[in-house]
Design a protein that fits this description.
single chain, about 230 residues, mainly beta, Laminin, 4 domains, two-stranded antiparallel sheet, binds calcium ion, signal
């Protein structure tokens, strides 16, 4: 129906006519079209033992910071012992030697949240790549290692590709260095390419990376191994 039948939320078709319906937590206003939030805190404080907070379409109970919300979502309780609601702990609850609440603990692979009650999974891959050589995936709190050879797919390396922990890097042949893009290889300038290697006449690059100067016929190399006389 055009314009949703004028209904703010839902328009329900019936035989020959229609009516408006609101989402849960809202009620239809007297005009039969608009919906307004039901104040869940208006009746009996929403059943909350302490603070009731009305929200659009719902409401929730809040507790002062030194109390915790019972699993019923209504009652605030002071934690005195693990025997009550597991001390409000998600996983393990520890009493002290007098049988009074001491602290919550989480099973391995989980850590205690800021509220000191609930436990949240630790991503095992954040710690030393989960011990994986290559890719680590968080499988419900356990590290799952995957071998992915990034070098086997197109990686953009100009010369070589080296597969390393969790990723890869490009490498270049001897005499070349990796460009700033981490992919291309640039020839390393040196030897005879820079200022003729300091030679007055001829310069010869050597396989060991060095270079030597030689003089043209009729000249001999000076003691500095560069000038000719
Ligand atoms: Ca409400």
């Amino acid at each position: 129906m055009a314009n949703n039948g004028g209904c703010e939320h839902e328009c329900v078709n019936t035989i020959g006519t229609f009516y408006c319906r609101c989402w849960p937590g809202f009620e239809l206003a007297g005009d039969g079209n608009t919906c307004s939030d039901i104040d869940g805190c208006a009746t009996a404080n929403g059943g909350c033992s302490d603070r009731c907070v009305n929200t659009p379409g719902g409401f929730r109970c809040d507790c002062p910071s030194d109390l915790y919300l019972h699993s019923d979502g209504r009652t605030c309780g002071k934690v005195t012992s693990c025997s009550v609601d597991n001390g409000g702990c998600d996983h393990e609850c520890e009493d002290d030697s007098h049988g009074e609440f001491y602290r919550c603990r989480c099973r391995s692979g989980f850590k205690l949240s800021e509220n000191k009650r609930s436990c949240q999974a630790i991503d095992p891959c954040l710690d030393n790549n989960g011990g994986c050589q290559h890719h680590c995936t968080n499988n419900h709190g356990r590290a799952q290692c995957q071998y992915i050879d990034e070098c086997s797919k197109n990686n953009g390396c100009e010369h070589f590709c080296e597969n390393i922990k969790g990723t890869y890097r490009c490498k270049c042949r001897e005499g070349y260095q990796l460009g700033r893009d981490g992919r291309t290889c640039e020839e390393m300038l040196g030897g005879c390419q820079v200022g003729n290697g300091g030679c007055q006449h001829d310069c010869y690059d050597q396989p060991d990376g060095g270079h030597i100067c030689k003089c043209r016929l009729g000249y001999i190399l000076a003691a500095d191994q560069m000038l000719c006389h």
